[in-house]
From TrEMBL:
Belongs to the Rab GDI family. Residues 366-441 are annotated as: Disordered. The lineage of its organism: Eukaryota, Metazoa, Ecdysozoa, Arthropoda, Hexapoda. Keywords: Cytoplasm, GTPase activation. It comes from Acanthoscelides obtectus. This is RAE1/2 domain-containing protein.
Length: 441
């Protein structure tokens, strides 16, 4: 029996190459615990076909689906949007879609910028759309052709990286321990009841999903639809394996969808198979939300052996609560803090922002995640201490040797003096004897 191993995380994220999360990994030195691959191509669904999105300057001018005039229009727009000092006051009360139409862009260019580059939709406000476009453009060229990075072996490696750093400095993790209850006194958290143990702490941080009902007043809960597929080939065939991001635009009454296709080079699936993750804001239920995409891009009819579409070998649909987009009111004790958990965004930047806010409330005088020393630096410090100890020991040994030498020298001098005194006494006695003999004669 052949067994295959897949890393099917319930949540998948990409990272902007110059996003807050990547900058935090670098500044804190946690990056040494993680590995990334650059997303090698960005696709979109345009005119009933998959098309490559021209991300960089070279992509724009090498794209044969874009006319020369369109290339100039697109480059002019992207260059103007890169200017962070540009006044956005004229964008108020206007959608990004209308803003792009006012720039006289063709429908194809509007599609590229609105749905792919800025990951927006027709209702996205102009100011937000421009910020998201700048975010995309600002991360281009740092680590690859596209702005995005993916964590090797899946998103589950990211918490592990932070756990490793915490463990180095004495952090303790107790996994799979059910929380039976907690004690609150004078509007402050006192202790947790875990199994038969009481664990006291100054602060308590909880995922909102696992918080007691007394802490959360949930008016309306929104959900994220998720789908995971295993397929036998890539959505767009190529000579080499690609790490693909597909940005599927809104269609009829369906929301836009973010899809990422992972191959064996990401460490998430075996060779010649692909792992596909899709996510969108839930409209009805996960299966209905993704049905149009699966029908357009994949082959779910196993009897159709002539289809060139990737064949779906396995599929899983599920929902995740989206507390960030929900109407939630928190009513927590003074030293309890709630995190929102997974959201619809494709990265962890909001999680970084939320973590900083919670940390600043808990420890207002402390620096958030300062740089951790390299192992070599720790070893060097230890060696310095050993050298100091050795120098001290050598100094003490030298002092001891000097004292011993002085004592030996003193004893030798004393002995020499005694010997000379004894010899002198003997000479005196001998002389007296000689004189006595002479007198007797």
């Amino acid at each position: 029996m052949v067994r295959f191993h897949f890393e099917t995380n319930g949540s998948f994220q990409l990272q902007y190459a110059r996003g807050d999360f990547v900058e935090l990994l670098i500044s804190s030195n946690i990056a040494r615990y993680s590995e990334f691959r650059s997303v090698s191509r960005v696709l979109t669904w345009l005119n009933e076909h998959l098309e490559v999105v021209p991300c960089s300057r070279s992509d724009v001018f090498s794209n044969n689906k874009v006319s020369v005039i369109e290339k100039r229009m697109l480059m002019k727009l992207l260059t103007s949007l890169e200017d962070v000092e540009k006044d956005l006051s004229g964008c108020k009360d206007k959608t990004y879609h209308n803003y792009l139409k006012e720039k006289k862009l063709t429908p194809n260019l509007i599609h590229y910028v609105l749905y792919a580059i800025s990951m927006s939709d027709n209702n996205t406000l102009c100011e937000q759309g421009i910020k998201q476009t700048r975010r995309f453009l600002g991360s281009l060229g740092r680590f690859g052709k596209t702005p995005f990075l993916f964590s090797m072996y899946g998103s589950g490696e990211m918490p592990q990286a932070f756990c490793r750093l915490s463990a180095v400095f004495g952090g303790i993790y107790a996994l799979g321990q059910p929380m039976k209850g907690l004690t609150i006194s004078e509007n402050k958290f006192k202790c947790l009841l875990v199994n038969d143990q009481k664990l006291t702490a100054e602060h308590l941080v909880l995922n909102l999903e696992h918080a007691p009902k007394q802490f959360v007043d949930l008016k309306k809960l929104e959900y994220i639809s998720r789908c995971v597929l295993i397929t036998d080939r890539s959505v767009m065939s190529s000579e080499k394996e690609h790490l693909t991001l597909l940005l599927y635009p809104p269609e009829n009454d369906k929301n836009s969808v973010i899809m990422i296709e992972l191959g064996t080079l990401t460490g998430t699936c075996p060779k010649d198979l692909y792992l596909v993750h899709m996510t969108t804001r839930q409209k009805t239920n996960p299966k209905e939300d993704f049905l149009h995409i699966i029908n357009n891009i994949f082959n779910i009819n196993h009897k159709d052996t002539e289809s060139e579409k990737p064949k779906v070998l396995w599929v899983c649909y599920f929902s995740l609560p989206d507390f960030l987009s929900s109407d939630v009111k928190q009513n927590v004790p003074d030293n309890v803090f709630l995190g929102t958990g997974p959201d619809i965004d494709s990265d962890y930047d909001f999680s970084v922002k939320q973590a900083k806010e919670i940390f600043s409330k808990m420890y207002p005088e402390e620096e958030f995640l300062p740089r951790a020393p390299d192992p070599e630096e720790i070893v060097i410090e230890a060696e310095d201490e050993e050298i100091e100890d050795k120098d001290m020991a050598d100094k003490q040994t030298d002092q001891k040797d000097e004292a011993t030498d002085g004592e030996v020298k003193q004893k030798a001098e004393t002995k020499d003096t005694e010997t000379k005194q004894k010899a002198k006494t003997q000479d005196t006695e001998t002389l007296e004897n000689v004189e006595k003999k002479q007198v007797d004669h």
